[in-house]
Amino acid sequence: MDDMQIIELYFARNQDAVKETEKEYGAYCFSIAENILHNQQDSEECLSDTWLRAWNAIPPSRPARLKLFLGKITRNLAFDRYRQKNAEKRNSSFEAVLDELAECVASPEDVEKSFDAKALREGLNSFLKALPQRERQIFLKRYFYAQSVKEIAREYQMTANHCTVILKRVRKKLQNYLEQEGFI
Question: Is the pLDDT of residue 167 over 70?
Fold first, then answer.
């Protein structure tokens, strides 16, 4: 079943919409949650919340790209669950992602606040579109999907060190871009 058919099921308030969504995008959304939470039970709960959030959002929303719509919901829910469960302690993998981005912006709190700003979001989209495809994909896999450097390196058939160097260079480009555009 294609995305438009699934969305039409949501608009018809047909319960099969959730089943079809889970069948089509369950593994994709689970991998996003698992990369952030590193806990199967929490990731499964996050998926259940994703399907509920999608049910409540469609209608009135009519996402142009259902996969990205669901991925963003899952990612936001996973980050919320992560923060809730780790309010008192630091988790090295997720904190490492924020720490790497903190090199470009003043503090992790500023990163979270700034990413909500529409102007910054548009600027980041422009920055990402200007990157070569491979660098853009590596950057997104690390900082949007929270994949480990080892996973990304394996996928692109490179060493972890080479992947780290690419990420460092892209972060430096991002920092320069944000400075030039007046974001920092």
Answer: yes
Give the dihedral sign, CA 132/30/104/129: positive
Query: Cα–Cα distance between 26 and 71 in angstroms, integer?
Result: 10
Closest CA to 139 of 106, 163, 112: 163
Within its chain, how far is the Cα of 179 from the centroid? Answer: 24
Query: Phi first, then psi: what are they for 142, rounded to 5°?
Result: -75, -50
Decide: 38 and 151 in contact? Cβ < 8 Å: no
In the structure encoding, which two tokens stand for residue 123, read together?
Answer: 């600027």
Q: How far is CA 123 from the centre of its chain?
A: 17
Which SS3 state, helix, strand or coil, does residue 128 take? helix
Burial class (CB in 10 A: 0-12, 13-18, 19+), 150: exposed
Give percent of the chain with pLDDT exceeding 90: 56
What range does the domain containing 24 cover? 3-85
Specify whether 99 is located in the same domain as 144. Answer: yes
When divided into structural domains, the chain yields a total of: 2
Measured between alpha carbons, how far is residue 30 from residues 23, 78, 94, 95, 98 in Å?
Answer: 12, 10, 16, 20, 21
Between residues 184 and 113, which one has the greater pLDDT? 184
